[in-house]
Amino acid sequence: MTTDGRAWLADYRNRLDELRERAARVQLEITTLTATVTSRDGAVSATVDHTGALSGLSFGPAAESVPRERLGMLVVQATADAAAEVARRAARALDPLLDR
């Protein structure tokens, strides 16, 4: 192998190592993501984890006067909004890997 070939291979390996390190950092960042969304009226707060799964739910004082059917809709909407926020953050976390 020529000197140029060795230099190219060493540079290639360095770039792969850097990419692996960035990927590990991104993976850690994504797996620790959470988001909490509170309904406009403050009746419901929903927290989701990095998978979009509901990991926390709380009801504010406004929940006392909200009909159950509406309260259920608020839970679903807050959970969906929090999952969308986690997805946005995860996409932004991928930027260093995708050179966007």
UniProtKB/TrEMBL annotation:
Keywords from the UniProt entry: Coiled coil, DNA-binding
Keyword flag DNA-binding: yes
Coiled coil: 9-36
Translocase in keyword set: no
Signal peptide limits: none
Gene Ontology molecular-function annotations: DNA binding
Protein name: YbaB/EbfC DNA-binding family protein
Source organism (scientific name): Pseudonocardia oroxyli
Lineage, highest ranks first: Bacteria, Bacillati, Actinomycetota, Actinomycetes, Pseudonocardiales
